[in-house]
Write a structure and sequence with these properties.
By secondary structure, the protein is mainly alpha-helical. Helices cover about 60% and strands about 0% of the residues. It has one domain. The mean pLDDT is about 90.
Length: about 70
């Protein structure tokens, strides 16, 4: 479900630039920023690069692009 909201022109302009650079739609860019904001607020002790790595790993896992960890038999 989508909802119409008002966002400042400044945020929209910034989103347009980032969206183009990262091959996202403007709404997709704003959703990405929103998701990151929620994660950062919920996990203030995690460094931003660590959060990015978690999101990448989650996306790879959802696409089946993972190799299961198998401990060495010693």
């Amino acid at each position: 479900m989508s909802t119409v909201i008002r966002i400042s022109d400044e945020i929209v302009d910034a989103a347009k630039i980032r969206a183009k650079a990262y091959h996202r739609s403007v709404s997709g860019q704003i959703e990405y920023w929103t998701k990151l904001g929620q994660i950062v607020e919920d996990n203030p002790d995690l460094p931003f690069p660590f959060i990015q790595d978690i999101l990448l790993a989650k996306a790879q896992s959802e696409k089946g692009e993972v190799i299961p960890y198998e401990p060495d038999d010693e």
